[in-house]
Amino acid sequence: MRGGRIQGAGGFWAAHVNVPDDKKLHVQFMSKKWDAGDPRQSSAVANDQLSAYDDHNYIFYGDTKGDQSAFMRSACTDSRVTAGEDFVITGEWSLTSGVDPDNADNADFFKKYFAAQ
């Protein structure tokens, strides 16, 4: 940290100790989707190509209100990348659905759901 601002590992410090490009360390921040702030608000982070972003994806907590079709659509199409990120690392996830696995009427849903994973 310099002047109260975060300096990416590939930026300030690596440049001052002459670290070769192929030896620079990347720094991983919590993605904006954590709702704990946006690490890219710091220009040192936003402009550092070696910064990565971590996401935890628990699709059960989405806004599907028990609708199996909406849940499946969300599970298959929810992009976890936010503006300004080229990629995200999903470090933790859950396939919990909230659909009762003991109800035989849900067997078709689970066949499709697990095949889609």
Helix/sheet category: alpha/beta
Helix-residue proportion? 10-25%
Low-confidence parts: 1-10
- Report the strand count: 3
H-E string: HEHEHEH
Gyration radius, to the nearest Å? 19 Å
Overall number of structural domains? 1
User: In percent, how much strand structure appears in the residues?
Assistant: 15-25%
Q: Biggest β-sheet, characterized? A: 3 strands, parallel
Contiguous helical run count: 4
What gap, in angstroms, lies between the N and C termini? 40 Å
Query: What topology, given as strand order, has the largest sheet?
Result: 1-2-3
General description of the model:
α3 links the parallel β2 (51-58) and β3. Helix content is 25%, strand content 15%. The chain has one domain. The chain has 117 residues and is of the alpha/beta class.
Q: What features would you highlight for this structure?
A:
single chain, 117 residues, alpha/beta, three-stranded parallel sheet, 4 helices, 15% strand, elongated, disordered N terminus
Architecture blueprint of SSEs:
Layout lengths: L11 H5 L10 E4 L12 H4 L4 E8 L9 H10 L11 E6 L12 H10 L1
Parallel strand pairs: 1-2, 2-3
Quick synopsis:
The chain is an alpha/beta fold and 117 residues long. 25% of the residues lie in helices and 15% in strands.
